[in-house]
Amino acid sequence: MARASALRRELRAGLAQLPDQADDERTRTLDALVERAEALLRTEKEVDAAVEQVRLARLEAKRGKAQRTTLYLAVAPVAVGMVSGAMMLFGALNPVWLLLALPLLGAGLRIAFGPLGPTPLMVSRRQRAAYSGALAAILTAVALIGTGPTAQPIVVILAALATVATVAFLVLEAR
Q1: Is Transmembrane found in the keyword set (predicted)?
Q2: Nearest 5 degrees, angle CA 128-CA 130-CA 135?
Q3: For the chain, what is the largest distance between any 2 Cα atoms, rounded to a whole number of angstroms?
Q4: What is the DSSP annotation of the chain?
């Protein structure tokens, strides 16, 4: 960028000298200015390429951080989905819990192992899905443990809403 700025200053200075020069000098100055203009064009293209590389590197760093974070957050929905499925197999839970456990397990697996999109919007949607999936897992675990006869329906409804939100974020990301 500094080189491009210096070339611009040289071009301006050369253009300012043109009216005071004779024809032969003016021709040589114009030739030199054309060379500087070409060098400026090449330099500006290099600057644009460097800026794009920096932008892509920042996006890739953000994607890597988001992928690690979502992987860690996906452990909760997968674990709760698997534990609740095991509890249903052994008869400790009613099969109605499948309505909550299967979407939660599927969303957790998608969060953990699904490909992360290339755009910042897709990255932020995946992060939102991971956070809402972790919240849904916590609420589902609280509902499975049991909070009492009056609070249990409220926690189950909140867990279902959080699970629906997680699936909605994943559907939006896939679009």
Answers
A1: yes
A2: 95
A3: 101
A4: -HHHHHHHHHHHHHHHHGGGS-HHHHHHHHHHHHHHHHHHHHHHHHHHHHHHHHHHHHHHHHHHHHHHHHHHHHHHHHHHHHHHHHHHHTTSS-GGGHHHHHHHHHHHHHHHHSPPPSSHHHHHHHHHHHHHHHHHHHHHHHHHH---TTTHHHHHHHHHHHHHHHHHHHHHHH-
Q: pLDDT tens digits, the chain, 175 residues: what are they?
A: 788 888 888 888 877 777 777 777 878 878 888 888 888 888 889 989 999 999 889 888 888 888 888 889 999 999 998 998 888 888 888 888 888 888 999 999 998 888 877 778 888 888 899 999 999 999 999 988 877 788 888 998 999 999 999 999 988 887 7
Residue with tokens 């997968």: 78
Q: How distant, in Å, are the alpha carbons of 8, 14, 49 from that of 1?
A: 11, 20, 12
pTM of the model: 0.68
Residue with the two structure tokens 């099969």: 95
Residues 6+ apart with CB under 8 A from 27: none
Backbone angles phi, psi at 172, to 5 degrees: -60, -40
Which amino acid, residue 157? I
